[in-house]
Amino acid sequence: MSESANSPFRPHESDLPSVRPRVLSGMRPTGKLHLGNYMGALANWVKLQDQYECYFFIADWHALTSDYADPSQIANCTREVMFDYLAAGLDPAKCVLFQQSKVLQHAELNLLLGMITPLSWLERVPTYKEQQENLTHKDLSNYGFLGYPLLMASDILIYQPQFVPVGNDQTAHVELTREVARRFNQFYKLDGHEVLPEPRVLLTPSPKLPGTDGRKMSKSYGNTIQMTDPEPVIRQKLKTMVTDPARVRRTDPGDPDKCPVGDLHKVFSTPETLAKVYDGCRSAGIGCIECKGWAADALIQLMRPIQERRARYSETEVDEILKDGSDRARVRAEQTMVEVRAAMQLTIQTAAKETIAK
Question: What is the C-alpha to C-alpha distance for residues 311 and 304, in angstroms, rounded to an integer?
Fold first, then answer.
């Protein structure tokens, strides 16, 4: 895909806003994205692309931290995630969509920052122990898994963003990124100026979204509703979803505030439907099957335009968009690395270059 002004995936540089705050975020390609990914991140990213200079990437190197034993699906999953990005409404003419491993500057900055980052900073990241406890079927006692928060920090700092859009559960990663940037700036400056600005958290609303088993929706738990699930699959998954344990029999009253299906209604259903849910459930006027059917109706209505957008793209177009975005990201990342290398005095001086050339 060329970088020319005729690219169908992005406007000419002169058409872009001159000054907008920059944001950066990404997702691991561990499979097709689900409703939790959409509500927790993608829906917010779509809004941000009209207000900020946005860089959204697919973190395929991060997938290796847990899937290193069998990386055969990462390439295909990367394409699937890009399909989901586009289906959600991300526009390559408004934001930069790219693949982490296609921008080698991420790895270079990660190596350099690894030289100054205390080991204790990585060990205290909450999700480090949390994922070890949740993914007991995988051996995560590797350097890559321990160091993934620093790679995440490198992913962020390489674009010198002002903001990182995250939910409350991810603020610890941004705080580590700020600490790493602060430490770098203490050691190294370029002509008296700091090179790596400390990004701020841009808290994004992330509604409580349970999976079909009542726990947090997660691929690790196998309880997800995927963005690509057709209507029959959505209805079947909702039929098997756990409900208020107090409703043992059809005639028992229930409480939507204690029911995972009720949580879905709060996020996706209209006020009118939600009122019927509360009244019918608490009075035992409706059964769980009917209530689940209403929830499925709301999800299908949400998914329909998403799946229609997905169907408009071919694999070739998605690959071209990914290449074009990675080329653009690489240019911006190199701008940062020029400053980083100079601040760390890793650049070869002109005289030395001439000597080497001779």
Answer: 11
DSSP label of 249: S
Q: What stretches in the chain show pLDDT beneath 70?
A: 1-18, 128-139, 348-358
Helices 60-67 and 148-157: angle between axes, nearest 10 degrees: 180
- Specify whether the CB–CB gap between 187 and 116 falls below 8 A: yes
Calculated CA dihedral for residues 308, 309, 314, 315, nearest 10 degrees: -110
Q: pLDDT by residue (tens digit) across 304-339?
A: 999 999 999 999 999 999 999 999 999 999 999 999
CA 33 from chain center: how many Å?
Answer: 10
Burial 275-303 (b: 16+ CB within 10 A, else e): ebbeebbeeeebbbeebbebbbbbbbebb
Query: What are 55-92's pLDDT values in tens digits?
Result: 999 999 999 887 788 899 999 999 999 999 999 999 99
Provide the 3-class DSSP secondary structure of residue 211: coil
**Domains of the chain, CATH where assigned:** 13-209+315-357 (3.40.50.620), 219-308 (1.10.240.10)
